[in-house]
């Protein structure tokens, strides 16, 4: 049996699918219960509740763990530390021998004061450090930017006919579909020789305008354009969209790290990398 955190999310749901297809029973953890299915036992509860999590991990041969974001949290680092410490303490309490952790490209870079160096990714650096204190075999899965993160802006794209962000238009990034991230994580869970770090880069590095050009028609917006807004303006737009001031600041700081090349893959593309191209992914969104 393997315990999967974030089991109803983009990546976790794919991990559950892959594991059950391989005949592995799963405890599916999320606050809103996962749908019960053959091999899937919903395990509803909050990652901040260490005792609950310990029960979720008890007897597990392995665990898939992640640190969910809450872009409305007034203090992102404190929110992530609270959940991250709870997850690591519960893994230790239950003596889980094998852990595959969802992290990110750029998590090797310390966030520095106020997580200014890499924005949101700084809290994943800190979580990798916590996981390293476990007496367990830990694999960190470090994907590139999720293509699904563009869908968060779909309503704004429809309302304004543009996609606004603060990534420079000529910066090519390792964009990856979460389907491929989940596959790589499940493969690591099932591989007794998986490495300490698995990068998942996506089929090719692509720019934000590339994604917008593919996604626009899929959303019924053939003229969708990308607008690179100044950093301060982007923070204002994000706050208007419901992010906390801290969340907006960290989003823009992360984009600055993309623009300046501080978030990047370190290895060549390999077997763990995504295969879905941006265009194939967008066709799936249209479907
Ligand atoms: N977006 C990107 O481009 C990107 C790139 C690289 C890495 N990442 C990393 O990927 C992770 C997010 O993965 P994802 O996209 O698969 O997440 P997601 O789709 O947002 O799903 C989050 C999952 O966690 C559960 N969850 C949220 N808060 C919880 C809590 N307090 N207690 C228990 N369960 C909780 C959610 O279900 P409930 O809400 O029902 O609890 C859901 O199952 C983040 O750590 C992020 O750093 C993201």
From TrEMBL:
Pfam families to which the protein is assigned, alphabetical: NmrA (PF05368)
Superkingdom classification of source: Bacteria
Gene3D superfamilies referenced in this protein's UniProt entry, alphabetically: NAD(P)-binding Rossmann-like Domain, UDP-galactose 4-epimerase, domain 1
Name used for this protein in its record: Uncharacterized protein YbjT (DUF2867 family)
Domain NmrA-like: 2-233
Listed SUPFAM superfamilies: NAD(P)-binding Rossmann-fold domains
